[in-house]
Amino acid sequence: MSTLGDGLRLAVGTFTRIPSGSVTLDDRTARTALLLAPVAVLPLALVAGVIAAGVEVGLPPFVAAGLVLLVLAYGSRAMHLDGLADVVDAFGAGWDRDRALTVMRRGDIGPMGAAALVLTLLLQAGAITDLLGAGWRGAVVVAAAVLLSRSVCARLCATDATPAAGSRMAAAFVGTVPVLAAGALALVMAGVLALTALPQLSLLEGRDLLRGALMVLLALVLALLAPTLLRDKAVAVLGGVNGDVLGAAVEITLTTVLVVLTLAW
Q1: Which residues cross the membrane (predicted)?
Q2: Can you give the pTM of this predicted structure?
């Protein structure tokens, strides 16, 4: 099996619950998997987009938003949400690294992690509901935001990133992606999101069009900035990036992009 094939299978098995079989893990396979993460998640994003587009046939936008989040959680084993909760609990445990790592590895969810999950899902549901006011055009944007959010893992696993000690996922993935390759993937996914926003932006005129374009641009900038800030915080508190940090980056990026896009139209 080629590195490309193994990498895609690893990406599918890592980012979705779709069975993909066993893969021999090495730096090349890990790098390929991270760069192909949006491809691996494409079926999940398409299902989410189709469900979201159900507003065109009478599905209430808030119900559609709830179903989208249900599909994303089930299709990813809710591992990104779990990572977000663990990271928030660890960051809230104080500046002592050993204590933060202990809290993260404990497995249960503390009050800060629970609050982060509830508030994040509320923000995502509210933002998706608002975007679906644009019908199928909003649904396409939501699907693209899902793909973009998964692509940020490559940036956190670039060669300039530090793996957290004691993390098997960090040891396998962090530091395997060239910085230029991670940057190229980010630009490609930014272009995909911008293209999916064009059908709705084309309906705007004058100041509304300018505001919409600026909000899309802001969403893309924050999609690049938020994971970087999270990585730096993880290095300061945890000593580096681990699997939970990758999951948190996915959820934070998705939430940020969706919320900012609600200001676009």
Answers
A1: 33-53, 59-75, 109-128, 134-158, 170-197, 209-230, 242-264
A2: 0.95
